[in-house]
Automatic annotation (TrEMBL):
Residues 27-261 form the AB hydrolase-1 domain. One of its GO terms (cellular component) is membrane. GO terms for biological process: acylglycerol catabolic process. Keywords: Hydrolase. This is Hydrolase.
Amino acid sequence: MPVVPVADALVHYDRFDATAPDGSPALVLVHGTGSAGAALNWGQTVPRFTGRRTVLTPDLSGTDRTRDGGGRLTTEGLAAQVIAVIEDAGTGPVDLLGFSMGAPVSAAVAALRPDLVRRLVLVAGWARTDGDEYLRNLFTLWQRLGDLDPEGFGRSVAMTGFSRGYLNAIGREGFEQLVPNMPPTPGTLRHVDLDLRVDIRDLLPRVEAETLVIGCAQDATVPVEHSRALHAALSRTTTASYTEMDAGHVVFFEKADEFVQRVTDFVEAP
């Protein structure tokens, strides 16, 4: 498990080499909110991409495996960690995919270091929290529940993370298994604090990479309108396409096959 120092952090990441490499760019998967980090988000997805390309999965500050000074997180600071991982692995330029909190972080990487990003995929992301009272209040509720009711925090995250149809399909037992997946650890709450302050509007015009924005029609965490707005903003200055999936926030769990296919079609297009 490689480690790279960035400011006051020792950033851990995993590298999964291709089983049948064909020279395709490496794929970097950037996780969303939660101290479990890359393992929870990408554990089931990584093997779907490693046939022909190397996959890198960083664990950013706030996760259990990356230690730092415990200060307040910034989008640019986490972007610097992703940049350091790409440089340390020596695999750039890469195809970069960010989910949820990882979407604004990945957009920042593409804006700050366009030489390192060939294609960019933003999944269930957003550009700005302030101005959307739903988003601001959801993250504020998570902060309150994290301090006062850890089980309630887990239930809220699970309930908003998946579509109603998916939750009913897995049933009560399946839902109860979701509740402890993202406990409100200090690291998770640092991520939630950052979620409340996201604003990458000034960075978006600097993105040069061809971009795919994936919105989730039933997203109750980050409403799909945010993905549509991201696409609209990026389309003003770069080549950006948009696709929408009929799923909740954690789309790569609900619609794994469709998700992998849409990402693969984009990154492997001529």
